[in-house]
From TrEMBL:
Keyword Glycoprotein: no
Primary location: membrane
Lineage: Bacteria, Pseudomonadati, Pseudomonadota, Betaproteobacteria, Burkholderiales
Top EC group: hydrolase
InterPro entries with a match to the protein in the record: LexA/Signal_pep-like_sf (IPR036286), Pept_S26A_signal_pept_1 (IPR000223), Peptidase_S26 (IPR019533)
Membrane topology reported for the UniProt record: Single-pass type II membrane protein
Family affiliation: Belongs to the peptidase S26 family.
Species: Roseateles paludis
Protein name: Signal peptidase I
Length: 175
């Protein structure tokens, strides 16, 4: 019973504290992934390390974190940038289209997207100083399909490393 309590409640907090201390020394910040919206890239319970970055330096495909009271009640949420200012974003049959062209997504499990919400979304234009963000696990993601394009002011930073659950002493880059 005590082992189960440790594994469920204490181990993740200890892992986050260790990662946070190590990250601060290199200018990174840490948070624990609390949802499955970015699987398989980021899994529930993993510790993500991010750096604050100017929105102008962010690129398509970057995984960012946002924390905005009106969106997620202050919880840091990881999502991927799939559209920037001036882009037109659309989902057809689970395939992402950017400015009318198919945009390959090697990180996304298209076959796993089963709901209509995940497979089809009308063309949306991204306004100035905004980004269109999607989770890699589309069926389990509250993202720009629901919230609309996200203002740059809500973006906290770019996720660069993650401590995997199966080996928390290691780090792997986020792509």
């Amino acid at each position: 019973m005590l082992i189960r309590i440790y594994n469920h409640f204490l181990a993740p907090k200890i892992r986050l504290a260790r990662a946070s201390a190590a990250a601060r020394s290199s200018g990174l910040l840490a948070f624990q992934v609390l949802g499955g919206n970015m699987e398989p890239t980021l899994r529930l319970g993993e510790v993500a390390l991010y750096k604050r970055q100017e929105p102008s330096s962010l690129c398509l495909g970057d995984v960012v974190t946002l924390a905005h009271q009106s969106y997620f009640e202050g919880v840091k949420v990881p999502l991927r940038i799939v559209g920037l200012a001036g882009d037109r974003v659309e989902l057809k049959a689970g395939q992402l289209y950017l400015n009318g062209q198919v945009n390959p997504e090697p990180y996304q499990l298209t076959a796993a997207a089963e709901s209509e919400y995940s497979r089809d979304f009308p063309c949306t234009s991204v306004p100035e100083a905004h980004a269109f963000l999607l989770g890699d696990c589309r069926d389990n993601s509250k993202d720009s399909r629901l919230l609309g394009p996200i203002p740059f002011a809500a973006l906290v930073g770019k996720i660069v490393l993650v401590h995997p659950l199966d080996n928390p002493r290691e780090q792997r880059p986020v792509r």
